[in-house]
Amino acid sequence: MKYSTFVRALAVSGALLLSSVSFASAVNTGVNDVAIHGYDPVAYFTKDKAVKGKEKFTAIYNGAIYRFASEENRDLFKANTDKYAPQFGGYCAMGVALDKKLDVDPDAFYIADGKLYLNLNKTVQQKWLEDVPGHLKTASRKWSGIQDLSVADANAEEE
């Protein structure tokens, strides 16, 4: 797939998902301020898979509600949020590299250097995996410019 075609497809996919993404800026949350669609951020590290959290095990971090599969996972998160919270506020890492704030598929995740990165979907994740160090460098640089923007403003087409 050509890069320009990929970027267009990513923008269209992201636009379709905007209705399910909160307009809070720094953290990707759903309608009820729940991060990662209710999936347990600790389970990515301990189980190496996406695991749905339970409403009875929650923690609030950066204004978002995180759910956990167990009390133990919640306590691990509270003890070390920097380790377990998803990078780029839980927005699509590849999207951030492209100056966009896009929602994620909780199953499209990647852990690099002890940090959790999520992607829009498995197709976008494959593009991310082609050059994780390069995309990560770009995303890290661009995040500061879009972090505090609303989703709509971050995803607005430049004229």
UniProtKB/TrEMBL annotation:
<keyword id="KW-0732">Signal</keyword>
<protein>
    <submittedName>
        <fullName>YHS</fullName>
    </submittedName>
</protein>
<dbReference type="InterPro" id="IPR007029">
    <property type="entry name" value="YHS_dom"/>
</dbReference>
<feature type="domain" description="YHS">
    <location>
        <begin position="42"/>
        <end position="87"/>
    </location>
</feature>
<dbReference type="Pfam" id="PF04945">
    <property type="entry name" value="YHS"/>
</dbReference>
<feature type="signal peptide">
    <location>
        <begin position="1"/>
        <end position="24"/>
    </location>
</feature>
